[in-house]
Amino acid sequence: MEDYPEELRTPPLTLVSIVGCSELHPSISAALSSQQPPMNTLALPDFSKASILARSAKTRDPLAPPQAPAGILKKDWLLKHRTRVPAAVAAMFRADQVSGDPAQWLQACSDLENLKSVIQGRNTKLVVILVQAQAGDELSEDVTVALRKRAEIDSKHLVVLVERDESEWTKSLNKLKSIFTELCSTYYKDEGRRIKARIEKRNFSSVELSIRYCFKVAVYAEFRRDWPEALKFYEEGIRVLREMIGTSTRLPPTQRLVEVKAIAEQIHFKISTLLLHAGKVVEAITWFRKHIRSYERVVGSPEVAFLHWEWFSRQFLVFGELIETTSTTVPDTLSPRFGTADNALTEWEFQPAYYYQLAANYLREKRYALEFSSSSVNITDGVNGIPESVMPSVYVGQYVRLFEQGDTVAVLPLSDTEYTSYALSEAERFQDSYEIIALFRKAYESFQSLGAMRMASACSGGMAIEYYAAGDFSNAKQLFDGVAGLYRQEGWATLLWENLGYLRECARKLNSLKDFISYSLEMAALPLFSGSGQGNSENKSKNGPAGSPTISSRENIHQEVVNILEGKHAPEITDDGFNLHLVEESTHLDIDQISPLRIVLVACVAFHDQSVKPSSPMLVSVSLQSHLPSPVTIDKLEVQFNQSDCNFVIVSSQEDYSTSNVHDGAVQVTSLTLFTDKWMRLTHEVKPGQSGKLECLAVKATISKHLVVCCQAESPASMEDFPLWKFEDQLETLPTKDTVLAFSGQKLIQVEEPDAQVDVVLNCTGPALVGELFTLPVAIFSKGHAVHSGELKINLVDAKGGGLLMSPREAEESESHHVELLGVSALTTEKGSKEEVDNIKKIQQSFGVVSVPTLCAGDSWSCKLEIKWHQAKSVMLYVSLGYSLESIEEAALHRLNVHRSLQIEGKIPMTVGHQFLRPFRREPLLLSKIRSSSGDDKKSSLALNDSNMLIVSARNCTEVPLRLHKMAIEPDVDGKQLCSVQQISGISNEYAVLAPSEEYKGIFSVNPQIISSNFRLGEICLSWSRDSSLGQSQDNCVIMKERLPEVHIEESPLVVTMECPPYVILGIPFTFHVKIYNSTSLLQEIKYSLVDSQNFVFSGAHNHAAFILPKTEHIVSHKLVPLGSGSQQLPRITVTSVRYSAALTPPSSAATVFVYPSEPKFSSEKGYSAPDACIS
Amino acid sequence: MVVCVAVVGHQNNPLYLQSFTEADDALKLHHVVHCSLDVIDERVNNPKRNSPALNETFLGLLYPTENYKVYGYLTNTKAKFIMVTTDLDVKDADARNFFRKFHAAYVDAVSNPFHVPGKKIASRSFSARVSTIVRSFSSGTTA
């Protein structure tokens, strides 16, 4: 747009001229241009300069027939009317110039005459301005009249300017302005009407004039700011212009077309500007469409096609710039349904980027046409040469040759051939590429910001092609790479093909063999539309250097790569100067999961198992697939794992890879040839050396000796679809034959730890007993593995769950551990000399770590765990042995573990019970017992100063025999004097053996000597051990203590003692005494009653009462005769103390006697003597 | 004259693209079809602009470029049909009619039990049917 002349780009402004009084010109022209609409002033300092307003003299014979015009529009016509042909001329005179001196008056008159003559023949209006110094200066009426008459103007066209007075000056200036405006409007209207009349009367000889008239009418209308009329005549002009293309014969065809297009361009530009500035975007775009449509096919002869495309491109560029500068938006009134009948326009047409892109496209078209033209011209008439001194003619869009001969300069028309070669030479001077790139870049940025990625990449691709054409290969490559990404992503293989074709050539030009190979291989592996046209070499410009995408060209490209790799250079490549020695080194290509080269080669690795033991063989499948069109022969295949020991190499035996080159682990396979789209499946056996993860990292294929393709291994289970090929409608094959493996196979496998060849044995001898130091032997037997830096971890856990054997709060008090690991004692082995320096031994209550000495294979080691139960609990014991096979540090990281666990019950060894008894047949009256009848006080009551019996029983509740070493009552410290406890019967030997569930009873006599309501007797103290045949030392005795409950000791006021023989004989009478002792210092009245017993007859009172003196004893005696034999109940006696109102009945066990039928005969002496004593 | 028809899949990948020109500008048509996807995206992603046509499948003229006009159509399964023509004046009704027939042919082609959805359409009978539709469109508009 900037190339257009200024007068075309801006709306025309009316022009007036002022002559004379030059000192006032600046202020007047400033005032006129500040007007709305502004007015341009052509200021002439004095009247002598007025001649420039004169019409150029035309020596035209009025009688001669009207000549055909030589062109449509004169180039300077518009400029002339904007700058040199004023609509009105104002002659300025000072008042004193016209009023005083007659000589001056005459001068003024002649100036005025001159001016009149100059503007004669035009319709230019005349205004006379008189400049007064002050408002008060009266001008004589006759002067003004005379002046008016001289000037032949209306009175209102004579303006008086008052110079000195500010307000008068403004007022008079305003008057001048309005007069000028009016006159201008009249002038342009008259001019327009004059020419319009010619159009209407069809008063013109040629179609050129018709167009010219239309243009002029429109311009005059523009001067008047009558936009609709201007638009109408511009449109009319362009319509006529379009029609004349085929009819005019004035110029040779090529130049004719050039002229027509130049005019059309101007008029179209005017129309577009008018429409856009009026806010009629839709009309402007519609108009542009129409314009383009009417000229797009008017290409002209092929030699000058480039002119058309340049012109055509400019149309888009200028319209785009217009849209951009007027910052158009889509009008709200427009239907949002673009592209349908409601609204024929589309979104992009409102975007300047759209026009820039097309401008760039057409400019590229021009470049192609120019290339074509210059090549053909050079061939045909290289001798002709370019005509000299060709210049633009006075007519728009025409060129002439300046012909100088002596002093005379003639202008000669050009022939089409001359013009063509001129235009060609002119066009070749410009580098279109950079302009195209700039246009594409503009469009690219704009589309990018609009979010139209595909449009943007099309622009980007256009830029890249231009860079390529201009020889800037690195820039081109960068842009092509960017675009290729989108095409790869969306699977537009044909577009990608073109792109890669360029990239391949860029790489070739940049001498990058690796890129060349990778682009070539990718191209060769592209899926193509089967319906693609057959390639022919002519359309290389359209399809890029790669030509048409066909199977055969894919194969050719593949073959070309193979040739390069094998050193068989095709002649065309060596021409381009690919370095031969580059090929001597091998080229590496890395293919990962996102690489576009995945379609060239993909490697799929699957282990057949999910886990494996170390050094046991397993199978691994390696599958390769290529989409290259021809079969690929692989020389060597290296499969790499993260454990490098497992790497293996497969070598094709066809290749004469010398045996020296082959690794030890290499496998020979007859043929390693990959056929198109077919999986090559290889299965190999691998022995993993270490435990842990074994992962296949990469598969390296050496192709054609010099190309090493390193494929990242992929798991079949997580293999992604092939980019581009996934859309192909073809049978999908699985990488492995085994379908399960194809869907779930993994490229990594877990190698398990080797089986530990060490046994850990826990020997448990039944349940543990609370209180004892339970020893648990742990034995470690090496059955093939040497144990290095072994470590035994011991853990005790509550078997019922809950983990720890204590609550965290209890952790601080060590007593609260129910089960405690006390220690680990290592048994001295036969190789006891080996002192373990770093003997780790950490023992906590429930956890312990013990280091195990180094053991050779076959050795054993054992230790004993000492665990103590404080309470009966079931406990899980976990023992784990961790060791390494070798003492080296690296290997030490790799540890083997053996785990054992055992549940151990903790049991209470014996239950201890006790019982208080009174002396036989002696009942003290214990008042507390009678009073607290409710029984809330469960304390036993003991009589003061009386021997009370205490029976302690210990029952073995385990399943093993126990030895009871000691049973004693340990009185409290203070209770020792106050109460004497004597053991009446106890363990006679060293110990008493208690069989399971057997009970042992010890009898103690307790004689309290103090009255106390809660007296502590002390603890029962038991000492026991397991009854094992091994004969353990006394140390193993476990002391078990149980506290006796508190007792109540009181003095009994009455003690009832029954006396009766130990046995009686049937029918023989005996005496039964009941002695009642009053231990108080009071007289006690007692009552007693005797109940009959059917087995006895007795003499004496049934009921009686008695008084007992203090500290005396009262004896009640009855004579009884037993009537039945056996154990018989004596008649029951109840003694009641009146004072205490308490009845005392001896227990029935005390009131029983055994009745023999006759005098018994005891054989043993012992037994014999005893009844005697009893009888006596 | 219809110079190119294309079916574009969900990932904006070409499923079918056939050009019907004598001139060897298949590549250019690929570019034209690919760029037109931007306009489809624009129209589909601005539903408020197209609110009256909720179930409208015909997208209309996508954009004019060089001497082509590109028309679009979006099926309910979001397959995109694109038609490139060199005709200057295409009536909406004609274009709709064309796409309707084309849609029917497409439905028949993808209903083939051996066709995998999302893959390129390689059916020969589909191609033949499309050619017939294209010919009838060209003759219909020129007549």
Describe the structure.
The complex is a heterodimer of chains A (1176) and B (143). In chain A, 31% of the residues lie in helices and 28% in strands. Chain A is of the alpha+beta class and 1176 residues long. Chain A folds into 6 domains: 1-55 and 67-223, Rossmann fold (3-Layer(aba) Sandwich); 471-584, no CATH class; 593-751, Immunoglobulins (Immunoglobulin-like, Sandwich); 758-907, Immunoglobulin-like (Sandwich), CATH 2.60.40.680; 910-1050, Sandwich (Immunoglobulin-like); 1054-1175, Immunoglobulins (Immunoglobulin-like), CATH 2.60.40.10. In chain A, strands 9, 11, 13, 14, 15, 16, 18, 19 and 20 form a 9-stranded mixed β-sheet that branches. In chain A, α9 (227-247) packs antiparallel against α10 (253-277) and α19 packs antiparallel against α21. The longest helix of chain A has 35 residues, at 166-200. The radius of gyration of chain A is 66 Å and the shape is elongated. Chain B is an alpha+beta fold. Chain B has 3 helices and 5 strands. Chain B has a 5-stranded antiparallel β-sheet, with helices on both faces. Chain B is globular and about 40 Å long. Chains A and B meet through α13, α16 and α18 of A and β2, α1 and β3 of B.
